[in-house]
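Q: Give me the 3D complex with MGD.
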Amino acid sequence: MSIQINQMKKNMFQSGKKPLLTLWYVFLIAVLALGAVAVGLRFSQGLATTHLTSAMPWGAWVAFYIYFVGMSAGAFLLSSLIHVFDMEHLEEVGRDATLVAIICMILALCFILLDLGHMERFWHSLWYWNFTSILSWEVRFYGLYILLLLAELYFALRHDLVLASRGEGLKATLAGILKLGSNDTSAEGQERDKRMLKILGSIGIPIAIFGVHGGTGVLFAVVKAQAYWNSALFPVVFVISALVSGTALLTALYVIRSRISGKEIDISLVKSLAGWMVLFLLIDVGLQFFEILIGAYGLEEQELATLAAIFASDFSWSYWGVQMGIGVLVPLILYFNPGTRRSPTAMMLAGIAVVIGILGVRFNIVVPALTVPVLKGLPSGYYYPTWVEWASSGGIIGLGLLLYTLAIRYLPIDVE
Amino acid sequence: MQKVTRRQLFDKLFLRAQAAERSEKKPKPRWAMVIDLKKCIGCDTCTVSCKAENRTPPGVTYNVVLTEEKGETPHVTLVHIPRPCMQCDRPPCAQVCPVKATYKLKNGITAIDYERCIGCRYCITACPYGARYFDFGESYVTEMLGYEEIQAPEYGVQRGKRQGQKAPQGTARKCHFCFHRLQRDEEPACVETCLGDARYFGDLNDPNSIVSKLAKSPRAFHLKEEMGTHPRVIYLK
Amino acid sequence: MSQEKKCKLTRRKFLKGGLAVGGLTLLTPAFASQGVESNSGIEKLWLDDPHGTGNDKDEYDATNVIYSLCEQCNTHCTLKAVVTEAGVAASPAVVRKIAGNPYSPLNTQPFGQIPYDTSPEKAAKGYGKLGKDGRGFRGGRTCLKGQAGIQTTFDNLRIKQPLKRVGPRGSGKFKSISWQQAITEIVEGSDLGTPGLKDIWAYVSKEQVMADWEKVKNGELSQEKFDELYKDKLIDTRHPDFGPKSNQVVSLVGDRRDFIQKRFWSKSLGSVNTIHHGGICGMSGVQGNIHSFTGGKKKRMYSDVDNAEFVIIWGTDPFVANKGPTWLAPKFVNALARGMKLAVVDPRMSKAAEKAHIWVPILPGTDAALAMGMARWIIENKRFDRRYLENPNKKAAEADGEPTWSDATHLVNLSDPKRPKLKAADLGIGSKDQYVVVQNGQPVPHDQAAEGTLEVDTTINGIRVKSAFTLFKERVFEKTLEEYAKICDITVEKIIELAREFTSYGKKASITSYRGPAMHTNGFYNLRAINCLNHLLGNYDWKGGSISSGAKYQCFKGQYDVLNMPRTLKPWGTTIFRKGSYEKSSLFEKDGYPAKRPWFPYSNHVTQEVLPSIDQEYPYGIKALFIHRISPVLSVAGGNKQQEVLKDTKKIPLLVVSDITMSETASVADYVLPDLTYLERWGLESIYPNQPLKLSHIQQPVTRAFDGPRAFEDSLIEIGKELGLPGVGKNAFPDGSDLNNAEDFYLKVVANIAFDGQPVPDADAREEEIFKQSRKKALGPYFDENKWRKAVKAHEWKKVVYVLNRGGRFEAPGNEYEGEYLKYKFAGQADFYREDVAKGRHSYSGEFFDGLPRIESTRFYNGNNVGDDQFPLQLINWKARHIGTHRNISDAWLREIDEENFLWINPQDAKVRGLADGDRVIIKSASFKVEGRVRITGRIRQGVVGSSYNYGHFAYGSAPYRLDGRVTDTDPAYGHVPWAVSQNNGYAGRRNAGFSNNDLQRADESFKLGCLSDPIGGGASQLDTKVEVIKA
Ligand SMILES: Nc1nc2c(c(=O)[nH]1)N[C@H]1C(S)=C(S)[C@@H](COP(=O)(O)OP(=O)(O)OC[C@H]3O[C@@H](n4cnc5c(=O)[nH]c(N)nc54)[C@H](O)[C@@H]3O)O[C@H]1N2
Ligand SMILES: Nc1nc2c(c(=O)[nH]1)N[C@H]1C(S)=C(S)[C@@H](COP(=O)(O)OP(=O)(O)OC[C@H]3O[C@@H](n4cnc5c(=O)[nH]c(N)nc54)[C@H](O)[C@@H]3O)O[C@H]1N2
Ligand code: SF4
Ligand code: SF4
Ligand code: SF4
Ligand code: SF4
Ligand code: SF4
Ligand SMILES: [Mo]
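A: Here is the predicted complex, encoded as structure tokens.
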């Protein structure tokens, strides 16, 4: 049955009418349009369109922001592992990973932009500098990191771009621009590209680990006012969970894209990706266990209250259901059950489950800690996103999907 | 906004050194507040006087009074802790602010540059006292004639009407020790009107000031000392 | 345990408690100075050169300042308003900020005011060295309600034009009309079917009527002839004692009573029916006080806090309410800091009780039992001031260095069923005005004895007599301490502890009391009993003892006799709520006992009886009701039911309401006359009887938010003119000057104040200039200097300006005391026994009242116990710290403090009922039920529940009405999240939040409509109702 559908999809994609693609575009445009309405409202009425309050200063957008930063870092780390350690068998997803990393970063920045009380002052964050502000450092790391990613993508694609530019049509024109004047198709050129990738990857790994995603974790971890965030393990968990989400996303993407494009699925590649994913996931869960154990052990009021909010509040479904259920239990079952383990579809589902689960993780980092007042007697935070927050988030994610779709259609992402 | 940008540029490039030099000239006070919890009756007059002075919007309450009840009838005790901004000398809010919109003035006040703040609210999560608020742009205007006509010149800056989404809407806000009142030799509104005569104010650079003396009291303590924030609001237990 | 030791313990417990709470939870004990040492090292990281700062300091000077008077509650504190130009209000300026008036002691505790001769410029600039003293002394304190006052004036939901009802009464439809039309229709009648005053009003003098009535009685004149003569003038020619038809024009008022009540209603209109809020405010307390003293005015019970060593706060909360926190809270707090001991008698932990060394959570309404228990112990242990009590008169007292004396030694004639005091005339040893005391075994006229025998129980000339003290002693010995303790449900030890402390500080101990023990059916006796405790100490007029009514610079006499007029009408007849002895009325002749509704021999202003009496047309029906600045629907016990009377056009053919907002009462009016708010108009303070210095403060216009509203005085003057009444318009004052508007009255009052005693200096040219400039700035077109000047004589003007520039006149500090005594003295007689009360009769049974304090249960008018045992919890109420009566609900800043009036319930009571904090509950009494939310707290004793009374609006901007065909705005729901409103969240709840405690108040079953009242004190019962609380 699934094969049939896939066959169908494939036909649709490749036939002249491409109804599925059209449908996909229509869907994306609808999501984007709704998102645009929401963003419009947010522009005209400010943050009063959210359910954020002074007691709950951060919500969905920040959760999405760290979610996508994490995803980006994870994807990037994976691609770098591939380049730096010459993990040939993963080569296939390498470019995809870089592309995904870039797009995720764009989304992350969109989210954080939307979240600013004064969006028009976004440039202040680069113009002004506060040595002690992790966020101040982060912004710069993000910039550096994005440049690095772009360079990496360039070198990964350069050869193919040069080739593609020789053809005709939109794709060729685009490639002609993006090859940045290079015409070299020589083997040395390709070698150079490889070297560059290695170098960039080697620079990139610490930036991604310590700067980008670890740093994002640090952003939270340094906040001593929030006992739950304030732990040295926090950034580590951030990095690990980044790897979890990155591998998960790529696993899923790989399977989906292969299905759609009708390419044969490399089972071992899927297994290997899924293996990494599960390994990271287990480490992640283990670290989180320590995190919680140590936090709880301190019997510090605010910490306990936060844990209570996570485990036993109106919103604990987000922990038990999304983070642990969908995000951990489902993928583990799918992976360790011999029946499903071999199925790329199952691994795809596992990947998707993790991707969703990690979203829960991000919400559970941001929201519950803030529900607990820092002083007894201050109002407790309470939060769920407004439709404006949901719709704008949907719009931004839609934008990401659109970019991705366009990129894989018009850029030589697939390794032929 | 344009004007501000230009001014900021100017500041940054030319005026900085000069201003710094000028401000060194005569000894400046370092402001501090003392709140005597034994005297505080938990009336919230401070809270309302602050609203009236600073005309903060709904949801922005620079001062609150936290009340805790302990014990069983009739052995009940109540503790009221009024909470303005502590004007920490090691302020986590300034520590985290990515653009130095929040920073310390020499007079001890933790200031917010409303024209610089990008509204990221990092500082709000970082303040261990919950002293920071986000201005969501709300208003009393349906109920209160003329609410938007006047804003307090917080930090000495007259911002005219509250309209559009002009700052301080969209920025972080907090108690500023009534900066503008201090400039005109008037104590903070909450100190002026404290019904329990529980709030004291003054200059810690003056060893004879009432706050300097009270700060030495064995009853003196800070909220959440363990945070290492070194607050300038001293409580007497 | 010795008494000192015990007290220390309590104090230590208090401290320890505080510490424990602090230390354990929020606070970490630590060392303050370390963090604030210097900007060195780490601190430097965040130091930056100023950016985003500037030099605008919102500076102001004397031309931005007007000193006036706060009316956010009935305390009437002085205030300072700083005005700023802004183009929104009708006048050019708005109030930027309210603070206390630095010239006034009321706002400047504990520092004291600045010297009265300080120039306004200097006062506006201040004195202090901010860095060192921490104060600039530019403004003083006000309470939180005072701080928010600007929102009362600048309330967008105010009524801005005179309104006339459209459709039936209470339809909620109005149209705007002009002032001229409003006045004309009130006077001439209207198409609504409302009668015009000119047709219903008539006056005839008592002398004339009674002369003819005598003739009728003698048979010299036929009833028919009498009827014919007076049917157009009298309410009822069969009952001429009801008085003229002018009495059918009734006013119910909350403030500006002097002008409205003492001048216009009485002397221009000649109506006895002008009733203020007394009956629902503190009337039984006032009566209990008045009837505990002879020979001076002593309406309230206050302590000289500054020098007291022990104070009992008995059923009042001077930290929140009373008169008022602005003045009293800093006094008490500093007295505590100095070491004064404090006990609080209150069923719930008031704010005062939070700070007290002893909290006595008494069962509500059993205050007399506690007081008598204490008295018993004090007498048994001989801890009263015998020397004081043995003085029967002023001279004897003076010889002992006592400014006051008591009636303890005066004899009471027990052979007379009316139990009067024995008079010297009765024994042939003197006059009718002399009491008798026993001195050296012989009866002597009281004023001729140097000392009286305290305990007398004998027969003289066949007359059974006992001394007042003996009667009192016998009364308090009727029960044992155990019995008293049981009634109050507190321990015997508590009673003893209180009594011992009370008698351990000589004259420096006293009681401050107010509404708590008073607003019961037995309130009068409670207050009598409590007063007798002060009597036992003889603490009156002593530094640190009991303080008497505050002295004032005269307001109504001096330069101008403002309450008089060349030709006045003299009001006479029976008031609608029936003040006076039933037995003297013509109705008694007809009906005998029981009277259909209660008569009140002692008490004026029985507010709560007004509408029910109108409804029952007892003693007579009325024609027109003017309600000004009071809203009985919310403030009267059972006011929800009384609203129906207001809607009845037959019972109230014309209903005019003067209000600032569409209140619950205004919403059923025929005409609503929009009044100026307190920041826009003239006024006088009315109650401030607790300060040791002489002062008089004045309310004057500070701003004008809307153009349409107009001072109620002006409307009355217009009405008076149209009716041709005396005392308005030309030659309205005895000196021939005119009364055309409010200024004409109030500026004359200012002149009186300015010239009293040693007149104030003249305002110099600069002061005059400041006066003009500030008014021009603040009021623009609403300041007409010439008009103001004309209100007084030319030579008075500069002094008037001097007083207005300071918001009143305030005696210099340092004059509070003369040696060990207060300067302003009561200097009268303290009464254990009251013959005037003893001879009074209950209008139901005809039984005599008691001249002594006594214990009484909660009773209906018909004498039956209320019981209501199926409702196990007693409902009390109190003043919310953040809302003054009902009228501050328009202030969002105050609504932010708390979202609604939670029903306090003790954890034990909550547990039995399965309630959790914040639960919605049904509160049910025998008369009504409401929904509310509970606050579970140990701050209220078991068996008692209660809430603040200041909530429960259903109009007042919270509900729309139709105005000129359009639906009006209502107050907004604040907060962009649905869960915004909660304490400390900074978002105001809706104006209609909470419930009206008065809705639940017990109806009196003895008659159709109305609440329980104290038959002697005349106050409404507000603290007696029994309820049950069920989870909703
Ligand atoms: N914040 C605020 N201040 C106000 C007002 C206001 O509405 N709000 N109103 C003003 C007015 S009009 C007035 S008259 C004054 C009133 O001033 P207060 O007399 O101080 O006011 P209440 O709150 O009525 O005081 C009653 C106290 O008695 C307690 N009580 C209740 N029942 C009993 C009892 O049976 N025995 C004893 N011993 N105590 C009892 C209540 O718990 C409460 O603490 O306040 C004025 N000030
Ligand atoms: N159960 C219970 N009942 C109580 C009390 C209690 O503690 N418990 N307290 C009692 C006491 S102490 C009192 S004094 C009464 C008070 O009861 P009220 O006098 O009825 O209450 P207020 O809120 O003072 O004012 C009533 C009306 O005056 C209007 N008003 C305000 N300012 C102005 C003005 O400037 N001009 C005009 N024309 N109108 C104005 C308001 O809008 C409001 O509609 O309530 C009593 N009722
Ligand atoms: S005004 Fe003073 S007494 Fe009242 S709550 Fe604030 S600090 Fe305490
Ligand atoms: S109290 Fe909070 S807002 Fe104020 S200085 Fe300290 S950290 Fe900053
Ligand atoms: S909200 Fe403003 S002040 Fe706070 S951290 Fe962000 S930029 Fe700084
Ligand atoms: S110092 Fe000023 S800003 Fe701070 S709480 Fe007091 S009144 Fe408000
Ligand atoms: S106590 Fe009453 S009159 Fe005095 S400032 Fe407060 S609200 Fe105004
Ligand atoms: Mo009252």
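A quick observation: Residues 1-16 of chain A have pLDDT under 50 and may be disordered.
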